[in-house]
Amino acid sequence: MIKKWSFYTILTLIIAFLSSGFKPFDLDTNQWFLTNETDGTSYLYPSQKHNDYTNLSVPFTGKFFIGYKEAIAFRESQGKYKKINSLGYMGKYQFGTETLKSVGVHDSGKFLNSPKMQEKAFIALLAQNKWELRDVIDKYEGRIISGIRVTESGILAAAHLGGVGSVKKFFKNNGSRYFKDAYGTSIRSYMIDFGGYETSGIVADSNATVQ
């Protein structure tokens, strides 16, 4: 039979051992985690070394095509697939009914409820516009027109906003005249804001449609 003092001694040792497992041994505070600002305008990452993040598998859109299309979508509709504006333009990329027909979509209701179709329609329209503007792209890409460094992605974005004809007029007039939509947004602003993205993967195709 175990004596009482032995029982309580063993019980005390067990409790002390278990308790030690929940206490941190090192409470060292790193200076990078501290900030004197309390207004929420500053945010410090767990490391200030850029190389600590280069091998992380984290999506980075940058100037890649996915960044391009999502940037345009946010400007057009805040990325909302079911958005319909006051002029009747629909979806994530704000298509009009006539533009939808040009890429083979004749059911606007189905289009509005299909994210997959909307993404395909955007790609098809880019392909058509790239074909229509291939000569403009070849002639002006890399040049400075009206203070804008012209890029293929900027030209295609401008065409998405104002149409191919408006883009051609812009270059015909050396940037002195340019289209604005009903909300006052200009193709010039689209050329600036969406310039320099990767769009070389879009194949120019006059007959591109939603498959």
How would you sum up this structure, described in words?
- It is a single chain.
- It is built from nine helices and two strands, in the order H-H-H-H-H-H-E-E-H-H-H.
- Strands 1-2 form a two-stranded antiparallel ribbon.
- Helix 7 (152-162) packs across helix 8 (164-172).
- It has helices spanning 4-20, 65-77, 97-102, 108-112, 115-132, 134-140, 152-162, 164-172, 187-193, and strands at residues 144-145, 148-149.
- The termini are far apart.
- With 211 residues, the protein is mostly helical.
Give the topology, please.
Layout: H1 4-20, H2 65-77, H3 97-102, H4 108-112, H5 115-132, H6 134-140, E1 144-145, E2 148-149, H7 152-162, H8 164-172, H9 187-193
Helix pairs in contact: 5-7, 7-8, 7-9
How far from one another are the termini? Answer: 84 Å
Q: Biggest sheet, strands in spatial order?
A: 1-2
How large a portion of the residues is in β-strands, by DSSP E? Answer: under 5%
SS field, number of helical segments: 9
Output mean pLDDT: 82
The largest β sheet comes out as: 2 strands, antiparallel
Shape: elongated
Outline of the structure:
The protein has nine helices and two strands, in the order ααααααββααα.
Which properties best describe this structure?
211 residues; mainly alpha
